[in-house]
Amino acid sequence: MTDTVSTPAVRAPEAASPTLGGPGLFTVLLAAALPLVDFFIVNVALPTIGADLAAGEAVLELVVAGYGVAYAVLLVLGGRLGDLVGRRRLFLGGMAAFGVTSLACGLAPDAWTLVAARVAQGASAAAMLPQVLATVQATTSGARRAKAMSLYGATAGLAMVAGQILGGVLVAADLAGTGWRAIFLVNVPVVVLGLVMGVRFVPETRSQHPEPVDGPGTVLLAASLLTLLAPLTEGRAAGWPLWTWLSLAAFPFAAAAFYAVERRADRLGRTPLVPPSLFRLASLRRGLVLMLPFSIGFSGFMFVIALALQQGAGLGPVPAGLALAPMAVVFLFVSLAGPRLIARHGTRVVAAGAAVQAVGVLLIVLAVWRDWPHLDVASLLPGTAVAGAGQALQLPNIMRIVMSEMPAARAGVGSGVMVTTQQSALALGVATLGTLFLALVPHFGMRDALLTTLFVQLAGVALTGLLSLRLPRTVG
């Protein structure tokens, strides 16, 4: 009989959590900028596109709306798929598709081909973008995450302003005779750079407990967003035909059905597309409520000011774009101070940002009332600079607040929900404030229509400030 000596089992060391270094962070932020730049870059190029492709107003609206609606509808699904199959894999695939569809937009021979390519471009962006925030959540923590989230918010805000400026510059430059096509073709080399860097520097992450795609929830969420966004973004240009009213009437029923299906799936232990339990997080719930009026006002202002400066003040694409340059520059520098300000003063920084933005909008109102139609960079500079500072104190911090309590396993779906809310609000801003402005112009003239729209935006800024007082005082 031999004695056996038992030895303690040796546990294999756990794999170290992947980390996102500086080059990787630069790569995902570059990818985060692309979809937002492309949402706004067409604003100043639409007149040129319409003239070149003989496109009417309704088709030009589809160039904007087709991208925005496809992007918004598929974002949550893109986040869920990243959690399931791997965020880096979907990030690279989405980026490659974004480059191909951008090339298709730039080479489109007619207006309807451009619309189809823009829809495909929006779908590609929806696969790529949710992986950015999900990767940040899964590969950073503590101060590094706070800094990365602030940089993400700064990138998002800067991209929205820079897109409009870049659109004007590229159209006027007429690079190699490409005209408006350059606003899409410029994406191709950027995507190639992003793919090369993504392969090298972006780590692979996925949920430790991947959850299957919720088919009924996906269909009902898409139906809800389509029945709301499609008529609002296309209705005015199409003359509000019957289908737009039927679609709006169907929206509450589609939304109620989506909520009921998701709640039932959650109760039965299944995996809903948007788990209702996520909304128990006060930071996410209240942050998303703030995101709505902020983004509606932001996109509505950008759309309306582009029209007013070109069609009313007689500025070309470049001066119209450069009129917003002070907003972009100030936004960049102020947003970089966000982490320190939040650490010192908590979420009251968001309320302060709304107050500063309100002052900026009032200065723009004063410039329009005093100088119309002789507006230029100098007359708008005080207002755009102050408004940019206020926006920079809000947007990056709101985004950080929304994601602050998000579990890493649900980072993809959480980021998808946040960006869907933002993108839907951006589309609503163009639809609502843009429609208001264009409806008022024939009756009151462009100056008074612009002033009225700015006062409506000011009410939205005040609402954002009041809602921000309900945020948790501190944020992780």
Describe this structure in words.
- 78% of the residues lie in helices and 0% in strands.
- The chain has 476 residues and is mainly alpha-helical.
- The protein has two domains: 22-204 and 273-468, MFS general substrate transporter like domains (Growth Hormone, Chain: A), CATH 1.20.1250.20; 214-230 and 256-272, no CATH class.
- It is globular.
- Mean pLDDT is 86; it is low at 1-15.
Describe the secondary-structure layout.
Blueprint: H1 22-40, H2 46-53, H3 57-85, H4 87-106, H5 111-128, H6 130-139, H7 142-173, H8 182-185, H9 187-201, H10 215-238, H11 242-267, H12 282-312, H13 317-322, H14 325-335, H15 338-345, H16 348-371, H17 377-403, H18 411-468
Give a short overview.
78% of the residues lie in helices and 0% in strands.
